[in-house]
Structure formats: structure tokens, C-alpha cells
# Entry
Amino acid sequence: MAKMWTGVTAGKTDPLADDFNSSIRFDKRMARQDITGSIAHAAMLASKGIITEAEGDALAAGLAEILEDLQTGKLTIDESCEDIHMFVEQVLTERIGETGKKLHTARSRNDQVALDLRMTLRDENDEISGLIRKLLKVLADTAEKHKESIMPGYTHLQRAQPVSFGHHLMAYAMMLLRDLERLKDCRKRTNVSPIGCCALAGTTYETDRQMEAGLLGFEGIAMNSMDGVSDRDFAVEMLSTLAILMMHLSRLSEELILWASWEFRFISLSDAYTTGSSIMPQKRNADMAELIRGKTGRVYGELMGLLTTLKGLPLAYNKDMQEDKEGVFDACDTVKMCLKVLTPMLESMQVNTGNMLLAAQKGFINATDLADYLVKKGMPFRTAYKISGQIVRHCMETGQVLETLPPESYREFSELFDDDVYAAIDLKACMEKRISEGGTSASSVGKQIALVRKEIGE
# Structure
């Protein structure tokens, strides 16, 4: 097949070099964006009189037909073509004749591929944002049911203070809200049109870049043509945003794995999202959560890969930049799959509130409240802290918990203890006393849930 760029070169590359140089295996996913961009380019050329209105109409009609045929399966992409741009232009010329060759006027593959990638990542951004909102809804709905379900909050993986399960889930919701903000901010810088920058220096034709950008939904244009064709900050930023998102999903997955273990038994994951062992019949493995945790490293690697590719490139376009797509496309696909699996996995899980409460009671996580009780009776905090620790040690040695220790035992440590100590260390009361904004009381968690619902448009 003759190369469309033959001229000073004969275009007779080695077949192995052809395969090495080709990008159509992965850039074919940008077919819709490529064709949409070309339709806008044809409209701009016609509006400026660079081609005739009839030629513009013929190009637009031919391109629309190619898109429809690809979508219906009537036309399949020929992977022997070098890239998606060459494939579309070749089919267009075959169908409408010499007019098809006019489509590439006042543009280059350099600005064309930058346009396609920006449009594709803009679409991916929107889809991923929508999936995050679905996950946030499940988190909010589950947290609503468990605003008062007591569990131990942890630091250093040691039981620390009582929190509600709803409060714990809302911590992840806040992370995801930040991910949405980052995606929105990233989209703003992605939504800048490079088309019209041409190879690197602009064009001698009197084009209307603003018109073309507007037709494609861009908010502005790249203001320097060299930067326009060589900028991949938006792809790096997308990968960075996805890496942070995956870190959050990985942390949540790790907790699900722990909570579903026999040692915790805080939750039970649906059979639909667990697997068995090939040799141990009692096993229920949280494989889906483990895979989300594992795939996080894959997205991290793709971020570092693109940063490394770009770090030594001189201006303007270099073929190295063909390496921008596979990693970012794989990262988008990975994130979408993880979100699609995690959302129903959370929605279908069973919460074992009894086990959570039992773990909270055995963890002496109301010891801080015991110290606060003495402080409110006039004892210095450090003294109260020491006495509370001594009482906890006594309970551990005698197999009791703070709630079951008799009044006379308390008074052996301090005469300030009275029967009202039990109300002060009641786990639910301890939780509800955390009334500060963002705290674990049911009213505070309710406000957090309301914030999430507002942000996702409920």
C-alpha cells in the first residue's frame, strides 16, 4: 500500500519498520474523535473559502458515512494503515475522489493527533467522572444506613476510638470528591484546541482556529503552535489524577479485604465478587478487591512511563510522542473496570454490625473518654491519662471491659469515680459526643452525606 506521505522519500520502508512505526492498533479507538474533528475542519475550510462550499459538504457527508459504517460494522479498520488518520483519509478519497485529498489542507498529523487525543481524554474524563458519582451514591446510601453502627476506628492498625461505619465510609467519599475535583480541573486544561498549529509553525492559510475549536466544544486554543503540537501535559495530568484515584480505590480495597477476613468479619462480600480456592474448600477470597489493589501499580507505572518519555524531548513534535497513547488508554480502561466492579461489590456487601460492636467493646476504645471523665471532675489530664491506662491494664488482666468493671473497682483507682462513669464511657455516647464538624456523630455524618449527595447532583 502506497504511503500518503511519499514525496522526497520513496515510502518503501521495511515491513518490520512498518509494523514498528504503526500506531493504528491502539489509535483506532480515536476513530470517532478523528472523524468528528475532520468534519469541523472541513466546515472551517469552506467557511474561509479555502475550499468551496460544495467540497466542504462532500467532505462532511463522506466522513459522516465512514463514521456510520464503522459504528454499524459495515466498514472495518484496516490495520495495515499506518494510523487512524491515514485510514480515514484513504477511505474518504476512495469514496469521494480527489476532493478527499483536500481535507488535510491547513493541518498536519501533528496537530491532528493532538486534537484527537484531547477529545478522547475529554470523553474518558467525563465517563470516569460519571462512574465515580455512581460509587459515591453507593457510599452515601450505605453510610446512611450505618450512621449509628459502631465500629473501632484505627490508628497504626490498633483499635483507637469508636466511630460509625458510616463515618468510615464517608472518609473514602471525601477522597473521591477530591478525585472529581481533580478530573474537572484536568478537563479544563485538556479542553484546549491544538488544531491549526499544523506541523509546528502554523499555516500560511487564513484559517479560523477559534471557529473550529468552538465546533468541537473546546473552550480555547493553544496560543503557541510549537507548544500546541508538543504539549502532553494534559495526558500526564490525566494519568496523575487517575493514579491518585487508584490509590484511593486501593486503600478502600485493602480495608474490604481486611474486614472480610475471618479475623475481622466486619463484612461479608457477595459470592459474585469473591472466588474459592482450588484446594481449600473453606476459602472465600476477595479476589476482585485484591485485583483493584494490584492494578494500582499498573496505573502508577503508566504515569512514570509517560513522564520519562517526555522528559528529554526537544521541541516540537517527535515520534517518541506516539508512546503517549497506549499507557493513558490502558490507565483509563483499568480505572473504569475497577470502578465498575467496586461499585456493585460495595452495594451488595453485608455489614456485620454485631462483630463491629464486639470488636469496639473489646478494644478499650473508650479509654480516652474515661480520661476525659476524670478531667471534667477536676483531675489534670496527664494524671487522668495514667489512671485510665492502669484501669485498662487491670481489665485486660482480669478479662473484663470498661463497661463491666464494677464501681468499687473504679474507686480503687480514684475516688472521683461515681456511677455516672458508665454513661460517660458508653460507646454510642462516646461516638455521639464527637459533635465537631467532620466528626463521627450521627448528625455530623448526616451532613457529610448531604454534602456528597449535593456534589453528585442528587
